[in-house]
Write a structure and sequence with these properties.
Tetrahydropterin Synthase, Chain A, about 55% helix, elongated, alpha+beta, 11 helices, 3-stranded antiparallel β-sheet
């Protein structure tokens, strides 16, 4: 049976038997809280006439307050710095130190305050404006600058608004560089050089301001000439591209000719070195041969002289076109083969390299051929 049924004798578990079960009175709740706070801090009776609180209730209240105070202090005093962050500690508004990544314990506010700064986040800004070149032409230039924080103390306390400062320094630097450049250089091939010079100049100015900012990159978009002269500049760019193409073709032809000439020179050089080595080797061989002949001549002079004479005569007579026979007073006749003479005459006329004696008698038969012709009776008589 439920406690609030008619037969349940109104058994209220909260001790409200016989009372109205409507919402509690707000004034009664406030009065009870005032009584408890008065007992806690004053120790006397509350306005409701209640008695003194027991020591156990005071200890529990103090314990709860201590836990709450400890939690509040932990929330205010313990800081965790992420790896990409640095914590700037300010004591009564004055800079004290910079905290690295990790957990740290500092004094609670308002004594100290820790400001977390992300030093690895790359920030980007753009600068787009019409600028005047050295040759008094107007050009539209757009620049994208990326930077990050390298010194949090300087970044927070040296300049009032770092982002605005970077924007203004960028515009000033690019105007200075464009003002020292011609329009043709800015539009055609000077984009990379202008971006590098702008990055160097921006970094120098920011370092002089002690801004604590590091410029990581500067990218320049293609510059555009004014609309009134855009068509003429397009033609100029096309002409420059044609010029560069012709230059490249000429360079390729020059390289081909130079390489071919270098190859010919190398071939001639190698041939000359080979000829030199051949002559030197032949000379060395002849010298060695002469030394060996000299040694043999010392051992047997007569035999060596005879052998040298025979070798020399064999070498000389091997290329001769004449046959000389020593009959020593005999009346024998020497027959020359006509067919061989005719055959060799045709070959000698084609070559054209024989002397007058060779052309007259181009064929020199051997002794065996002469004897054979003599026996057979062929040939003509030569007296």
């Amino acid at each position: 049976m439920a406690w609030n049924e008619p037969e349940g004798n109104d058994r209220d578990p909260w001790g409200n038997r016989g009372k109205d079960t409507g919402p509690p009175d707000l004034d009664e709740v406030v009065r009870k809280m005032q009584e408890k706070l008065g007992k806690l801090f004053g120790g006397g009776k509350g306005s409701g006439g209640g008695g003194d609180s027991s020591p156990g209730e005071n200890a529990l209240t103090w314990g709860v307050l201590g836990v709450l105070l400890l939690a509040l202090l932990s929330w205010e005093m313990v800081y965790r710095i992420d790896p990409a962050e640095r914590g700037v500690v300010m004591r009564f508004g004055k800079y004290v130190t910079t905290l690295p990544a990790g957990p740290h314990i500092r004094f609670p506010r308002p004594i100290e305050e820790v400001v977390k700064v992300n030093v690895e986040r790359i920030q980007t800004l753009t600068a787009d404006s019409a600028m005047l070149t050295q040759d008094e032409n107007i050009v539209d230039v757009e620049l994208a600058v990326q930077y990050l924080i390298k010194d949090v103390q300087s970044y927070l306390f040296r300049i009032s608004d770092p982002d605005v400062s970077v924007q203004r320094v960028t515009e000033s630097a690019i105007r200075d560089i464009i003002g020292r450049s011609t329009l043709d250089f800015v539009i055609t091939g000077g984009r990379a050089e202008i971006a590098n010079d702008a990055q160097t100049l921006i970094q120098e100015v920011l370092d002089n301001y002690e801004s604590g900012i590091e410029i990581s990159s500067v990218n320049m978009q293609p510059a555009k000439p004014p609309e009134e002269v855009k068509a003429a500049f397009d033609d100029a760019i096309k002409a420059r591209e044609d010029e560069q193409r012709k230059i490249n073709e000429a360079e390729a032809y020059r390289n081909e000719v130079v390489e071919r000439t270098a190859g010919e020179a190398a071939r001639i050089r190698l041939e000359s070195e080979g000829y030199k080595a051949s002559v030197v080797s032949q000379a060395d061989g002849e010298a060695e041969r002469f030394n060996q002949l000299h040694t043999e001549y010392q051992k047997a002079p007569a035999v060596t002289r005879q052998r040298l004479y025979l070798e020399a005569m064999e070498q000389v007579m091997s290329e001769s076109t004449k046959v000389i026979m020593d009959n020593k007073g005999s009346q024998s006749l020497m027959y020359l083969p006509l067919d061989k003479l005719i055959e060799n005459s045709a070959g000698g006329s084609a070559s054209g390299s024989r002397d007058a004696t060779t052309d007259t008698l181009p064929y020199a038969p051997s002794i065996e051929d002469s004897l054979r012709d003599r026996r057979t009776g062929r040939g003509r008589v030569v007296r």
